## 1
Amino acid sequence: MEPVPTLDWIQFGKERCQFDACGCDTGGDCKCLCTAIATYAHECNIHGVYIKWRTPSFCPMQCEKDCEHYEPCIPTCPQENCDTLLDPNSPMCTQDACVEGCAKDICPSGQVYKSSTDLECVPKADCEKKCMEIEGKVYLEGDVISQDDCHTCSCSRKKKICRGTPCPEPTSTTSTHTTPRVTIPISLLTSTPSTTITTEAEDGECRDGWTEWFSEDKPIIFRQNSDTERVPQKLKQSKTGKGFCARSQMVDILCRSVGTHRPHTEQEDVTCSLEEGLLCQGRNDATGADTCWDYEVAFLCDCSRSTVETSSATTPVTPVTPPVVVIPSIPPEVQPKPMTCDEEGWSEWYNVHVPDRDGEFESLSEIRKTYSLCPDHYIAEVECQPVKGGGVESIVTCDKKGASCRNNAGQMYCQDYEIRVLCQCECQDGLGMEDFSITNDQITSSSLMTPDDKPYAARLNSDWAWTSHPVDEFSERNAKDEWLQVDLKEVKEVTGVVTQGHPYFEQFVETFAVQVSETGAVWEDIKEKEASFAKQFPGNTDQSTPVTNLFPEPVFARYVRIVPIDFHSAISLRVELKGCDSKETTTPAPGVTLPTVQTPETFPESVCINGWTSWMNTHTPRPGDWDDMDDLRSLAEKYTFCEPHQIMDTQCQVVGLGLTPEASGQVGIICNTNTGLQCNDDLQAPQHCYDFEIRFYCDCSLSTTLPAVVSTEPTSITTLPSEYCTQYDPQYKMHDDDCRKFYQVEHIFKIVF
């Protein structure tokens, strides 16, 4: 959609329309008046402004009184009916500019037209039609005819449609040698595969069988048309009965779409292999069938395989020099306060943002610029409340990112909120610099200023400090060439660092970065989540006060290297490392890197209730993150609802206003079972994504394991109280349960005839 026209454009359009309309009188053809105005009204439609200019007495449009009404903006997509509802393969409709005309009346909520020609409104449940009869048993449209963990056959359009192939018989193996690969057809899967290897394994390290489903990436419309699901180095134990193992024990992989469970083979140019995982890559400007689905993967574990793979690599006697720390060329305008966790319990109440036209956003990242908070992984709970008192409104999202309320469609209804966090600190022990548990030979450095400035002098609260050789204070490169390194002798969980300056001279490090390694061969910078640069930790402001900086996430490392970035007078350091013994009990063989451990996602058990779920919302657009995404996995983490195969319909609406995506005026909104709700902010310029919520229609009769429970609670939609509208404000007119946007013609074109 193009931007709303400016006042200059409106003035120009008004003059041209006035000229054409008044010109109709000179030729004696007054009928052209309506045509002239309609032409300019359509131009407004293209710009996203819908003018209700026809009246019963002025250029009326003759609509059927019983089933139609005049609309200045009718979507080009067909009205939902039983045929479109029951067609699982109907193409996604791409809307062009809407046109004026006679619109069919909207069916009440939960009902649709019988067909494109039969305009009788019927409940969606009544759309079930007899599909076919097999051996005397009648199957309705969409009924499952047969299924197991690897295939599903259902009735659709008078045909038996099967996806996948029946599961093969379980394959038995012996535990003496390598187990042969068990191959399962990669096809449509409605649940976790059940084929397992019969060899028993000890819980804690490995369990035979198929793992949970994982989804670490997802495509974003018009921005990232790709989905990459890598093979993890190790999977931890999750639900009872599901497999888990190291990468070397994975013998097969399955890939399917999230929610709809369609196999990756149904989409072109998608690969699924144990070597690379799932890869889907397309053009970022692709739409419709050319866009990548959101995929998930599962792995088959064989515990009889050894977890130790041969490697020609050896642990270096002296760790290799890590790459130069990469930091932004322009430092951040406001350095966040150091993250600490000195005291457990509830923090004070914070309020750093005043509601504006976009909404109310109490972001923890913004709060950290003023106050010192514990890292996200130590935050157990977050509480939000209106400053003026009262409970948290349904339009407010309160989570570990903060409190968010989006003022949608220009409405100002978000209150001023304040938040507090509950910190639960753990793994905060000193690792041995201050108490000499770390010996002198475990501490090394890049250089010394004098023979007395040994690296082992860099112990917290000691009577001396490590000082590097003189560095030009204005040479950024030289500062980053210096470092202080600690060898913990074994891999430990490291959670942060405490720094001090020199005890006798006004010399200290003002900002620094941290690099870590498990073997000394491969180094990583400590970064913020999803950041491409090393995190710049705020250091000391004087020579004696200890400053604690906790990492954004705990790391497992043997080697820890502190790299100064900015300093006062000279680079002098006294330090302590915070952490605890590694929770990993497996000791790697020489030359073998400890694997990255990936923990399966666990969700609440699904509970099916026939009918529509409540409205659900897991994400609110906010500064720095104006997209809106509510996918099936994030919804399952917060809410309890039916299984994906029981979802028969999906609806989305603007929070607080009840506007459908089409009526909201926002562009490119995705709302379906596979993607969930997705709004790309890049498409909404100069505005931002509104906050949307989503709900599902569940049919529990498709379940073979869960009892159906009939919901008796009516569904309610939160609406805002109506307010007086001026000529500069959008106006909303209800047509049953459908909202449309109108601008009265006299507010834009003041034409006098």
## 2
Amino acid sequence: MANCSGRIEQDIVTFEIIIYSLLTFFGVIFNTVALWVFCFKLGKWTETRVYMINLALADYTLVLILPFIMYFHYNNWPVDDFCSVIFGISSMNMPMSIGIIMLIAVDRYLAIKHPLKAKVIRSPWKAALFCLFIWLCCLLYTILFSLSLKGEFCFHKLSKENKALTLVRLIVFFFIPLVILLFCSIQVIRCLRKKHNAGPHEEKLTQKAIWVVSVNLATFIICFLPFHLSLLFSYLAKEFEVADCEVWQAIANTIHATALMTKLNCCLDAMCYYMVAKEFQEAAALLPPFNAMQSRSNLTQDSQLQSKTPENSQLQSLNTCFFYSIGVEMTQEVHQELNCNTTSSQEIFLTQALIYIPIFCFGVILNALALKIFCCTLSKWTETRVYMTNLAIADFLLLFTLPFKMAYKTINVTTLCLAFESAYFINRYMSIFLITITAVDRYIAIKYPLKARHIRSPLKSAVISGFLWALMISIICVTKKFEKRASSGTCFRRISREPSMYVFASVIWGFFIPLTIFSFCSIQITKKLVKKKKTNPYEEKRIQKAINIIFANMSVFVICFLPIHLAYLIRSIADFAEASCTQIEKIDNFTNLAGIIANTNCCLDAICYYFVNKEFQEASMKLKTKYLTQHKQGTEDQDLKTACPDIHNGDKCTTTQNAVFFCPPKCSNK
């Protein structure tokens, strides 16, 4: 290991920069709001408030040093004192977050499993002392770990002397908290499932609590387990004194790749802990955007307090104690209606009609032309032809769902409605994944031209496309089958107030992960083309055109699909925060406008992919040449028929003296 460079591959560095940029942007917003609410907008200190402030502080410190980490990685910064400080802060964040999450799980377990003892054991002061103890332990570990840091480049290589600290980090700061978290979460879920629910409303709250605990546990495992397993492999390699530099390079790449997943936690904590906390929701209701919701809640409380019976009061008190520590709001405010039957404004409906009609007309023409050329005119099948054909099919099918989307706005949920909804979303996400796969195919062809000959083939492209179609159809159909949709609801509109796991999954897996892959491939291709442009000035114009095409493709992808998925994300947060129906209606209006922008992709794909495609242009030129030739031949035949009717009406030449000059020799009277 001593002779190994330990450098990070440039592809991983570029990928890290993309991820860290997004995390810095969203992390600063989420954690700033969380700290502002928990520190300044709450009156009473609770255990949950103490834990959330400490967790937000740990996440915020990580978010603030991410730009330095990006700079160190990109510029191969040497190990110095400044590097040690940043590395120490980064190293302290992870065990601190893990420790706070463990304390939250234990606090939930005590409050639910042992509610009577919890009144004696739990207190804000004790929670603050526990957090202080975790901070001191993490600080001591960070100092020891930073002092032993050695290597050529900052954040690129761990020292060979820190085997003991690596083992301590694995056992004390991850595996023990993981076991405690698993035990507490499982016990809480079992306790919630055994609870006897008084009515359907309480049953829904119980299911929501179970879902929150399950998501917290899954987020913890997904974010932290891969990184600590890679550290375990590193420890074993040091223990067995592995000397192969390729093995160490693979371990180093794995550690840095999985470290990306740990950084995601600084944003996911906002959705998994802060925004579902009872205190956060109560404070958010006092902010100006939620004044309407708060006023409505106060009226509801006054009317319910007047009619509250002793039996209902006792039941409400029990529910409040039961759900308090897991962040599910059990105040009177949750007794507002669970569904919001909002209606789109007339302006939005007119906007949809004005935009969808030209989109439908032009889209059908453009995609029909693309399908004719890709399917019938070209002779040789290539990887690009396969992907473009599937993309044109997806766009074409989505276009035919637009009239039904407008017509079904006022129709209740039926089997036919669900079928059109499924087709609509299948083709949208099929387009996203096909565009992503096309970017990956370009990246392989340009970055690794020799390997591409073995990796790429039209048959493999067809298999990948078929797999994507089967995957999208299966996921959407299963989602629609198990999605809770009231028959009194409206087609193409979600009125349920319950947080949807499917919507959140579609935002992460259906957009942000493809966006990350697409951005990475596009940036790598652009960098490769820029280098080629400098070394090959004779092809400067052609290379610049390729760069412009890639930039246009990426811009269209972001402009079309980012607003609609941000709208889905905002709606999920609003459902968690139990916003009022007025707020939900505003979000739905924004979602409708963002959906219009997303559907314009059906026409923009033709401009960004089909018409700039080399094979498409060549086939188009062949069609144009063939058409002009046939038109010219038809005109000449008509002139010849007029001038020399004997050619078409028999062997006898009947041409006039004036026409003889236009006739073939056999028809001449000379």
## 3
Amino acid sequence: MNVLGCATGYDEVDDDDGESKEREELVLNIVTMVISMGMIALITIAVVANLDGSRQGAGTMKTLLYVCKKTDEPDSCVRHLKHVGERAPILDYVKAAINATLDELQVVNMPKLDLETNLTPLQAQAYGDCLQLLTLAKEELDSLYTTLSMLPFTNPQDVLNSLSAVISYQQACSAGLMRTNSYELLGFSLKRPIRLTRIALAIVDNFSYSGSEKHSTDDHDHDHEHQLDGSSAWFSGAQRKMMEYQRNGDDEVIDAVVAQDGSGHFSTISESLNACPKNSEGVGKAESPCVIYVKTGKYEERVVVPKDVGQVIMYGDGPMNTTVTGISTRDHKISTTHFRAATFVVMGKEFICKNMGFTAPVNITGAPALLVLSDHAAFFNCKIDGEEGSLHAMAQRQFYRDCEIHGNVDIIKGDSATVIQNSQIIVKPRNSLDLVLRRNMVSAQSRSDKYETTGLVIQNCTIATAQAESGNKSLAGSTYLGTPHTEYSRTIIMESFLGDVIHPEGWCKWSDNYGIDTATFREYNNRGPGANTTKRVRWNTYKTVYERNQMKSFLAAEFIIQSGQWLQNAGIPYESGFIYKK
């Protein structure tokens, strides 16, 4: 009994202790959970601050009127965003503007059967190009909206780049319609989505930089915030394969070999691209890049690297040995759009190309040898040869190194964020009578909004005539560095050799005084007979810069953000800063 009683008493005491311990554990778990939730909230607030512009975090509310006053069209901004509320987080206003743009693009893309039936073949092509570009714009916005909803800590520079690309697509669509006298098809209805995209761009730009909500309309010389978690890893798969290839020269890392003599897997480049893995819908990009080796040969085909393919690494046997010449133009009456005539078109992201040559098709005025709208595209030791618009860097972030770019009229055009280093830009005589009345131009950059992150930076390059044309006096002073092709065109020439082919004025007007008060043209530390700036144009938007600090925002590490990361991983050499000490 006593034992039993002791046992009973012991059991009762043990139960009390157990309940006490359970309560203690429960309290401890609750406290731990509360602390964890608090930490998560703090971290979330901190990272969302990237799109708030305030060190107080995303919880800081802004009034609609205050936000819209930062845009160029405050009334339109208020009208389209008022449903969000009079006070809301910045991110909510950005997402609402993106959503409104998507709605408008849906309207623009509606069939217009009454107009389509009366189109000429060329107008029908321009209309088809337009629909394709607007589809790219819609996909970019869809992806951006999803990203901001799931990952509100997205690097603001990536957001700005996406919105800038959307504007580029919309403007390219509009320009194509105007070129074929078919603007009434979509041009007028495009104005609203363009306006809404600009509103979103202005909001992100003004509120994504800590302690800075105001800046000049030309240089954007403020430092960009970086993604807080540092999780972005461009080209991780590409780096592995490229390093394996460079180390071993092993054919095992090559996914496809293209050869015209039948010694490869395919005889055309297009066939090899069709065999590359596609991005899985809802899953993301393909796990491993597709490496394509194109053997020596002249490939007479129009090549398109599609958007739905995974990352592609393509290399040849040298720019003079592996060449792509585009569609056959033996028919001198061929008529097509610039977009469809381009020899090599890159749409898929993170495309890397080495040791290849691209030649524009003859007899098609304005046909690009290379047209790129791929984000984080990189070209090394490539030759790009055409006349007008040889390189059409249409949109997104791009890099070119140790390349040759040949042309005469608007040699480099488009509305991308592009850096060209250590390359030769060769001005060639005109072969087309269609270009007689046009001026030779190195750059026709097409930035159309002051908040776009786009522009062309030419660093440590040579701009001259070909060696064979060095004695051609007709080319001396025949070429300008750039023109305000659009209102906010931006071209930077730095640390480069300028031959006597450059006109003493350096820059020329596009039409009357259009853009000369809003564009951005800079020259810094150039050399050569064409670098004398004493007779340069006297525009408010042109500057010969002498202070290095004023040029830092145009260096590769600043201008195409994370350049060190994705270029290094791509196995392409680059200069992140200044090349020459001064």
